[in-house]
Amino acid sequence: MQFDTGSSDFWVPSSHCKFCKKCGNKFFRESHSKTFQTDKIPFTITYGSGSVKGIVASDDVAFGDLKIQKQGIGLVNISDSCSDFDGICGLAFQPLSMTGSTPVFQQMIDQKLVEKPIFSFHLKSGSSDGGSMILGGSNSSLYYGPLTYTNVTEARYWTFKMDFVEVHGKGSRRCEGGCKAIMDTGTSLIVGPVLDILSINNAIGAQHNATFDLYTVDCSTITQLPVIVFGIGDKEFYVKPHTYVIVYQDFCYSGFMDMRGLTFWIIGDVFLRENYVEFDWGRQRIGIAPAV
Description:
InterPro entries: Aspartic_peptidase_A1, PEPTIDASE_A1, Peptidase_aspartic_dom_sf
Shape: globular
Distance between the termini: 25 Å
CATH architecture of the largest domain: Beta Barrel
CATH topology of the largest domain: Cathepsin D, subunit A, domain 1
CATH superfamily of the largest domain: Acid Proteases
Strand content: 35-45%
Helix content: 10-25%
Domain Peptidase A1: 1-289
Family: Belongs to the peptidase A1 family.
Oligomer: single chain
GO cellular component, one term: lysosome
Number of helices: 5
Radius of gyration: 20 Å
Protein name: Peptidase A1 domain-containing protein
């Protein structure tokens, strides 16, 4: 499963999803479950990378020792794109749910399965454990110093006010005076408005590649590239070039991507691979600190 703070639905491929099987995904056999229920209400969810369709159902769902009873799930029968993930576990808020179901983490709180109404992510590149998601709290041994908190400004996505983004030493500050951003574990890169992304990529010497619609970087220059600075909660957080440049064989590209018509920023895994993030559901705030 992909644990995604940028959506609110929990869905899995059904045994009727022929496309999912072609993709090699594992699928859920409802006939094998004694607790499965459905009224066969249809749903559709559209993501940046494609869409899924199916019926709304419910079943018991377990994460390690945590067992949620009667969790609303989407049972996907039709998908239009392959993924490395079999399904998605949405960790954003109820108003964003396309199936009308109570989100997984809200269920954990309501059913008293977690110690605190908090979950957190440690996705540090090169970490010995491969990264972790903590349900019910944080682990202070995985980050440096105290967490810096910023309030959720709209409880659909994990939306917050970002103070600025700049390329260190280049005088190319964007989002001057603050702008809307969402913290999204389900997005690999950092996505922003066209002109802002163009400015940042120009400052790091990235060139637009029309074939792939990405900004490419000379792989031999990575160690000389500047750090990117994010201003959040009156503090500065950093992303180093070996994290924001994605290396694929001998092809290197910038982790900063634009999206036509986008007016806010999507802060994805490029940021989370350098910074520990706590999602405080109870107080509706986000806590950030440099990751160990």
